[in-house]
Amino acid sequence: MRILVLNWRDLTHPASGGAEVYTEQVLRRWVQAGHEVTLFAAAVAGRPADETIDGYRVVRAGNRFTVYREARRWWERHGRGRYDVVVDETNTVPFLAHEWVDDGARTIALVHQTCEEIWHVNAPPLLAHLGRYRLEPNWLRRLGRGPILAVSESTRDALARFGAHDVTVVPEGYEPPAVLPAVLKAEQPTAVFCGRMVSYKRPYDVMRAVELARRELPGLRLRMIGGGPLLERLRAGAPDGVDFLGRVPEQVKLDEMARAHVHLATSVREGWGLVVTEAAAVGTPTIAYDVPGLRDSTRAAGGVVVPPHPEAMARWLCELMPSRFAGPFPALPHGGAHSWDDVAATVLDAVTEKARAPHTDIRRDHENQLRGAHV
Amino acid sequence: MRISFVVPTYNSARTLDACLASLRGQTHPDVEVLVVDNGSTDSTPVIAARHADQVLQWGPERSAQRNRGTACSTGDVVVYIDSDMVLEPHIAGQIEAEFTANPETGALVIPERSFGEGFLARCRELEKRLYVGDDAVESPRAFRRRVIELLGGWNERLTAAEDWDLADRTRGVTRIGRIAAYIWHDEGRIQLRSTFAKKRYYGRWIDEYVRMHADTSGRKFARTALFRKPGSLLRHPALTAGLATLKMTEAAGLMLGIRDSRVAAR
């Protein structure tokens, strides 16, 4: 099969994240399985506009705002008639391939997470309102006219709220480290937080929860792993028992996670919450806020979700720490997620089964809409 | 001691999964979960089937659903939980400990906290915090089986204030104790318009309740607990203002509801 994947970034982009790892792992395996794969992404300084990585072709053009237009332009000049399937990987802004692919190729969207509340964290107030209540609902409604793959139940629920009816859940992938850290649990009760120190991860909530829990568990310690813009401010206001490690090498991170008795996660929302999976893979259970994404990964990893409130997290921490979480917690093979081989095969099956050639009506509707808007 | 949780539901898909997962996550080893649905049209029955030991269909209102749950349950203790509540993991354990330590106690109050999205939810959080320990507002949720059977269960003539009615009748026959662990009440995103509509609906049963319990009802509506800790209110002036708005909206709804029932009775 000849597959074109549209994603705003590729793995070489300095700001690439979980979605890019997912894409890379899956595409590599599709190539190994004999498919012809092209990834279209935004330009990266110092990287060629067209190169081959791990057997798949990467084409780069545009920046984070223009990549969507560039993708369409590139497809019209070089892509039309050359692909069987177009995968529209959506990170908040969709490429809406099903509105402009018109050569009979089939299309399908792949959504890791919806943005919603995160608008308020990442954008200034007015733009955030515009984005959350106008732009994103409009994009998702249009995206929902075609088939969609979602990476968690939570994302499927969110898409359903915006009217998507053909949504298939595909698994999240995780490859555990080749050698599990050979460290013992810490002597003192220890909690670990791992993530960038940015407001949507709510590191303040974790610190507050531990501060409250220390009234009942005086020896409790919290290890905060990760860099980010809030790091210095958090460090300055840290209560007793909280240590900041900053950004650390991968091996140190795994050791720290393995040494802790419990991992805490408090994000506003995640697509899946891979950090929970990582913790489970090294034998550390998670207490997480009951929010989309974290809910999925935490349940899959045998952890516990709590109401999104620092006092609630503190209460659960006090109760579960001594009994349930103090003993040995078996390291889950893939931390509750799936192996990448599994994921690549499942996604390919889902694409094969669910992708469909866009209905000409949708395009006509859209063109009429555009025409209406210009009049 | 087996603890049976009875959860009445009606289109409760938003909150039910968290609720039932918290019941399943109790540290106490012998827990039974019964969901009594009343013809939900959303995914409530699917979510219920994932967690519950029994999923029943019954109506027409919450009291009848709870009584049906009591009849079908097998526990030594029956606990009535709403579908928008999340329980701390040690509640069932504390219930057993409390009932074992105090044989003369027949029912237990479980204190409540609330959480939700947005400003009004934070106002409500403040309100709930002020009520903790006020027996004019708090009602028992956990009953020994023989006590709830002796009382004849929930009053099916009441759809609102049925918890106060049961609390009053319980006080007549047994001692009411309390545990320390909290129930977390998911308020979601509170909207004044829907709060008003809900209170107006509940208001229809207030006259009926007052007729039954003329002696104690005044204290319940006065909500003196709100003013007992003025420090908490003064410390959060914005929340206090929001709370005042919320309570006035509720009061207006209730009064209109009472009027509705009187007009209908005429």
Summarize the structure.
The complex is a heterodimer of chains A (375) and B (266). Chain A has 375 residues and is α/β, with parallel strands linked by helices. In chain A, 39% of the residues lie in helices and 17% in strands.
What would you say this structure looks like, in words?
The complex is a heterodimer of chains A (375) and B (266). With 375 residues, chain A is an alpha/beta fold. In chain A, 39% of the residues lie in helices and 17% in strands. Chain A folds into 2 domains: 2-173 and 341-374, Glycogen Phosphorylase B (Rossmann fold), CATH 3.40.50.2000; 190-336, Rossmann fold (3-Layer(aba) Sandwich), CATH 3.40.50. In chain A, strands 3-4-2-1-5-6-7-8 form an 8-stranded mixed beta sheet, with helices on both faces. The radius of gyration of chain A is 22 Å and the shape is globular. The two termini of chain A are 42 Å apart. With 266 residues, chain B is of the alpha/beta class. Chain B has a domain at 3-188: Alpha-Beta Complex (Spore Coat Polysaccharide Biosynthesis Protein SpsA, Chain A), CATH 3.90.550.10. Chain B is built from 13 helices and 10 strands. Chain B has helices spanning 13-24, 44-51, 62-72, 91-101, 119-131, 145-151, 162-173, 192-203, 206-212, 217-222, 225-228, 230-235, 237-265; strands spanning 3-9, 31-37, 54-57, 77-80, 85-87, 105-109, 112-117, 140-144, 175-178, 183-189. In chain B, helix 1 links the parallel strand 1 (3-9) and strand 2. In chain B, helix 1 (13-24) runs parallel beside helix 2 (44-51). The longest helix of chain B has 29 residues, at 237-265.
